[in-house]
Every structure is written in C-alpha cells, then in structure tokens.
Amino acid sequence: MSSHGTPTPMISRKAEPLKGVAEVPGDKSISHRSLILGAMAVGETQITGLLEGEDVLDTAKAMRALGAEVVRHGDGAWSVHGVGVGGFGEPDDVIDCGNSGTGVRLIMGAVATHPFAVTFTGDASLRSRPMGRVTEPLSLFGTTSFGRAGGRLPLTMVGAESPVPVRYTTPVPSAQVKSAVLLAGLNAPGVTVVTEKEATRDHTERMLAGFGAEVTVEDTAEGRVISLVGQPELKPQVIAVPRDPSSAAFPVCAALIVPGSDVLVPGIGLNPTRAGLFTTLREMGADLTYENEREEGGEPVADLRARFSPDMKGIEVPAERAASMIDEYPVLSVVASFAEGITRCPGVKELRVKESDRIDAMAVGLRACGVEVDEGEDWFSVKGLGPEGVPGGARAEARLDHRIAMSFLICGMAAKQPVEVDDAGPIATSFPIFMDLMGGLGAKLETAG
Ligand code: S3P
C-alpha cells in the first residue's frame, strides 16, 4: 500500500531461524543523485539497479516535470536524457516529493539557480520537516522562498536570475544540505565552496566528479572543504547503483537477534560515510563478517554474513560516528534491546527531524514492548534485556516513517509476543520488497486486522 493511501497495519510474529540470501534493492541516496545528475548532463545516462521505491519514483517524476526525459525500460534499466546544466524549464505544476526529504532538498538545490519559480510539497511527514536549512544557503545564490511557518512545505522558491557562487559552512551535519548547495553551484559561474565540520555521505561529490565536473575535496582543520567549478558540461554516465547498506541493515539485524539465523546479504557498499552501523554491531559482539571484499565503481563492497549472536553487549556509540549511521539508529535500538546491558547513543539530535522524531518514535514503541529507554534532546539509551528477552506484545506507531515501521517488524521477529505496526505503507518509499524478502528468509509477517 502506498504511503499516501489508507494505513496497512502489519503484525510480526516470532520467526523461524532466518536463512538464505537477502538481495536488498539499490541505494536510495545514489538513486536520487543518478536521476538528478543524469537530468543535468547532456545526452543519455543509463542506470541499472535503480531503487524503484516511491521516494525515487517521485524524483523521476520531478525530473520529467523539469524537462528531462526519464524512461524505465522493460528489463528494469532506466535512461535519462538530460537537458544540460542550466537547461531545466519551468514546471507547469507543483512538484510533489511525497515522503522524501532527500528528493525535495536536492531538487530545490538543482533548480535554485534557474530563473523561474517552483512550488514544492509532500506528504504530512515531509510537510512537517524543516526546509530553512536548505532555503537559507540557497538564498545566498539569489533565490527567494515563501513557505509556511518555519519554512515548511508547501513552499515556493523563486530561482536566481543571475546566480553568484557561494561559500557556505553547513551548520548541521547533513548530506542533503551539502548536496543542495553543490547542485545549486553547478549553474553558478565561478567556484562554490561547501565546508562541513563532520564528514557526511559523499555520494554527491563522487558522482559530480564521475559526471566530469571539476570538484576537489580537502580535509582541513575546519573540516571537509568541497570546491566545485560552476557551469561545467556534465557528461552522461553508465551507472550501476550498488545495493543499499541502510536497507541491508534490516536483514542483518534480524539475523543477529533471531535464534539459529544465518543470512548472507551480498554486494553491500561499505563506503565509510555509510557503514557505521556494521562497525557498531561488531563492537557489540555481533557475528557479522565481511566476505568477498572487493572494489566496485570505486567503492569498497562486501557480502555481509550475519549469524544469530546471543552474546551481544551494550556499548557507547561514539558521537562522531553518528553521521555514518544516522538512518540506522532505529534498528540499532532494536538490536540493543536484545543485547545485554546499556547501549548509549550520544550526538543524535538530527534524528528528531527525520521522517519522524525517531528518538521519540522508538522510545515510545520500545517501552510498549517492555524495554527501558532513556532520552535527552540529542541522545538516547536502551537497557538491553539480554537472555531474558524482549516481551513485545505491543502496537507501535510508524508515524509515516519507513525505518520505524521496519524496525518494529524486526523486533517482532525475536520478541516473546508479536509486535504490530499501525501502518507498514511507508516501507514502500525505500524498500518495496521488504515483506517478500524477509518472508523468504523465514519471517512471519501478516496484515493485521
Ligand atoms: C541522505 C542524507 C541523510 C539521510 C537521508 C539520505 C542523502 O539526511 O538521513 O536518509 O541521501 O543525502 P541528512 O542529510 O539530513 O542527514
């Protein structure tokens, strides 16, 4: 069921040992960027492995509305005929990015240096999220934005007629903000420079270089400094999207907590800006190994093998690791509930402005499942029940947040009593084959009444 439709309650009961190979879909972050940069190149970009989740499909629609030709072929491959940097045309309707913060913020950046107005909206979750973090730096290029209170969607952005290049230091660790500024800088003359104090996922920088832009990255005392020379001619690319480590997190974590499990999750990118969860799990004592380590498309890749790990211990997750596992804290908090002792996660206030307030959503749902959770503005801790086990027997609210919905369904696979989720619809935004894939491994997921 679509995240825009009626709620689909789901129930997850104690699973059989999870066994088999879990081929998770394409990386969401890389999929958005492939479509957007493909649309800004001159000629045809070919993409295989694109994530066909609602978030990415909304970005494909937006690229069509801006003038690019985006086609899905019968074999599942996609092609994008780009219009070139500066070549977008005024869309004749509102751009609806659905549930996707990445989609809307990156597209705002991409259109900001074009001389026309675009109105953006999204679902109830996206309309509640802060957009000032993007409209503020984009105003430095010469854009004006009119949104609802707090800069929220629906929002109209009037693009800059004569954009100027920008130097900007991101005030929050956010790849979306960094990427919005870089994408805007593409159509500004001169050099746009973004500094981030903490490294966030670097797919935009890598892909810009792949498309032939002049981009340099320097590690300095102030942080990572990314410089982009504006108004390049981007060359179309052939892109094989790697599988998503953030989706891999779900079968991996499920295997660690369901007795008797042994699951292989092949072809997962271990880009250090994304792989923080796997390091954390190994520090907790998870039986998680990297097999067949290799390089693909310039990225480190491995097959992940996760086996039931009854002896995991709670740890303090270093705050400086937060950006590299920001989307994985919900499912980590489930694993932490089954480990022994306290897992403490500092430096995570960004979790409060995701598709939902993820600290609150997990704390409320886990407490209902019988787990003690403590929280502050930018931290939370989970008191793991270890061998005693997690009682479960609760209904958790997904709050239009795919990662919250999936995390509680994973919890139900190992808890003593089933765990229900009030709406599994949002899972289609990032992991449309989640139910079939987990069911194929041995999970017991059913639609609830
Ligand atoms: C993303 C960046 C992260 C992440 C999101 C995807 C991206 O958001 O949570 O799911 O593709 O750039 P922030 O940049 O706001 O941290």
UniProtKB/TrEMBL annotation:
Binding site for phosphoenolpyruvate: 28, 101, 129, 176, 358, 403
Gene Ontology BP term (one): amino acid biosynthetic process
Gene Ontology MF: a single term: 3-phosphoshikimate 1-carboxyvinyltransferase activity
Known EC number: 2.5.1.19
Catalysis performed (reactions): 3-phosphoshikimate + phosphoenolpyruvate = 5-O-(1-carboxyvinyl)-3-phosphoshikimate + phosphate
Highest taxon in the source lineage: Bacteria
UniProt-annotated stretches for the region Disordered: 1-20
Catalytic residues as annotated in Swiss-Prot or TrEMBL: 327 (proton acceptor)
InterPro entries: Enolpyruvate_Tfrase_dom, Enolpyruvate_Tfrase_sf, EPSP_synthase, EPSP_synthase_CS, RNA3'P_cycl/enolpyr_Trfase_a/b
Quaternary data: Monomer.
Protein's UniProt name: 3-phosphoshikimate 1-carboxyvinyltransferase
Species this protein is from: Vannielia litorea
Name of the gene this protein is made from: aroA
